[in-house]
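Suppose you are handed only two things: the residues of a chain and a line of SMILES describing NAP. What would the bound structure be? This form records exactly that question and the answer produced for it, so the two can be stored side by side and reused later without any lookup.

QUESTION INPUTS
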Amino acid sequence: MDFFAKNIWITGASSGIGKAVAIEISKAKTNLILSGRNESKLKEVAAQCKKNGSTAQVILFDLGDEKSVVSAAEAVLSKKIKIDALYHFGGISQRSFVNETPLDIDRKIFEVNFFGTVALTKAVLSRMAENGGGQIAVTSSIVGKFGFPYRSAYAASKHALHGFFESLRAENKKNNIRVSVIIPGRIKTDISLNAIDKNGQPHSKMDEGQEKGKSAETTAKIICRKLKKEQKEILVGGTELLMVYIRRFIPSLYYYMSSRVKPL
Ligand SMILES: NC(=O)c1ccc[n+]([C@@H]2O[C@H](COP(=O)([O-])OP(=O)(O)OC[C@H]3O[C@@H](n4cnc5c(N)ncnc54)[C@H](OP(=O)(O)O)[C@@H]3O)[C@@H](O)[C@H]2O)c1
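ANSWER OUTPUT
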């Protein structure tokens, strides 16, 4: 995937990893559609992308509101824009224990992380296939590979993305749809500040793990390099990525370690 002169739709582009990826890709003189809910932040990102020589338009939607996602997709597709790539970074995290979290909070996390992402993908997929194919990237997490305390619905929503997008990839090889699943470890963004608690309120704390994480800019460079290669799984982060291999190859050690994790 060469980014030059392509039409690339990026969700979660107002902040953190999605914003850094948008700015990194914009250096390749491409055409960006930047999405999220925060219009002023998205306009700032669009301005930076334009300075780098790309075009950038802002399309607002709330991933938790299917209608807003579908109507945004209809608006884009009605302009006969050929979407070459759709990169999903939009998402929210969680900070609450299973036994204190009402089901509506679990559903809210799934609506944003899973159903919103799936709704946009479904809206774009057929047109992408008709146009000869394209690239879709979805952002999971290392906790899309194993469970983690205080993140039950978040981890579950990320596991669900793996199942959905692996199936989509298998079904659409014939349509030249290439799928990448991005699996970040700890990246220094506002994710823990924006994570929701048992009441659906922002956690509003920069967690220690996040604070020490890889910068969004370095992360974006790594992701873009691997997106260009159309790598199917893109792991990015620090030593915490080891846990993916521990879970797979030494599960007993993972069970022990995960039960000892401090919740925050
Ligand atoms: N940072 C990490 O350590 C880490 C680790 C693993 C996975 N991830 C994943 O990486 C992705 C990006 O997260 P980040 O770290 O960059 O966090 P972030 O700085 O909080 O950015 C989250 C992005 O998601 C968008 N978003 C959240 N809720 C939305 C909604 N209801 N509708 C539309 N957009 C919404 C936000 O845009 P608006 O506020 O404008 O809506 C924002 O652009 C997420 O999927 C996250 O789960 C992050």
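WHAT STANDS OUT: The chain has a mean pLDDT of 97. The pocket of NAP is lined by residues 12, 14-18, 36-38, 41, 62-64, 89-93, 112, 139, 141, 184, 186-187, 189-191, 194, 210, 213 (CB under 6 Å).
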